[in-house]
Design goal:
mainly beta, 6-stranded antiparallel β-sheet
């Protein structure tokens, strides 16, 4: 699996499409998604994107899906330095597919999109997401899930910024053959990784 990227500084008009047309998006608030433990329906910062939030150790989300590839999108990486914008996201996320651990993510440091699995067998599968506290640190925001019949790749970079003012958000604008295929916030809040899911094996122009 690979992604081939090219750099460009030319500005473009943004496309309202959030995901490639052959991907399917499911909100964490979908009626087929179930939760265990205490979860709060929330909206984070200026994007006002609906999601579920927890600080409870062991709280989990379950979702049964059909697809050979699946990814998870988190909501913002809130920190205690954001005054008046909600509780921080400092917990750990463990991702299970059909009972098998496939990934672990520390939401304050990692990017907002995570590939949970590729090349699954045809048929139904279960995705389980578990939040764990790390000492006194807690908090996880889940926005939803991406499914595809083709492999999902992951583009990621590290970003840094000065406190409060200079690197609060990093937006990705991704084009293919002159057409924007994704435009989304890849990271909120300062230093850490910014992750973006894309169909694998293609050439893209990425502006950040």
């Amino acid at each position: 699996m690979y992604l081939v990227l090219a750099a460009s500084l030319q500005a473009e008009k943004l496309n309202p499409n959030v995901f490639p047309t052959d991907w399917e998006w499911t909100s964490v608030n979908d009626e087929m998604v179930t939760t265990e433990g205490k979860w709060i329906d929330d909206r984070f910062r200026f994007a006002d994107a609906a999601h579920k939030y927890t600080t409870e150790d062991g709280a989990c989300v379950r979702w049964r899906f059909v697809g050979t590839s699946v990814a998870v999108r988190l909501a913002g990486q809130n920190t205690s330095s954001y005054p008046g914008t909600g509780l921080p996201s400092h917990g750990k996320l463990s991702i299970y597919i059909d009972g098998e651990l496939t990934n672990e993510v520390y939401s304050a440091q990692h990017g907002r999109e995570v590939v949970a699995a590729n090349n699954l067998s045809a048929g139904p599968h279960e995705l389980k997401l578990v939040h764990s506290t790390i000492g006194d640190a807690a908090g996880l925001r889940i926005e939803g899930f991406i499914t595809s019949s083709k492999p999902i790749g992951l583009f990621f970079i590290s970003v840094t910024g000065e406190l409060q003012e200079y690197m609060n958000d990093a937006r990705f604008v991704v084009s293919q053959n002159g057409k924007i295929v994704r435009s989304t916030i890849g990271r909120n809040w300062l230093t850490g990784s910014a992750h973006l899911c894309l169909p694998s094996g293609n050439v893209y122009d990425v502006k950040i």
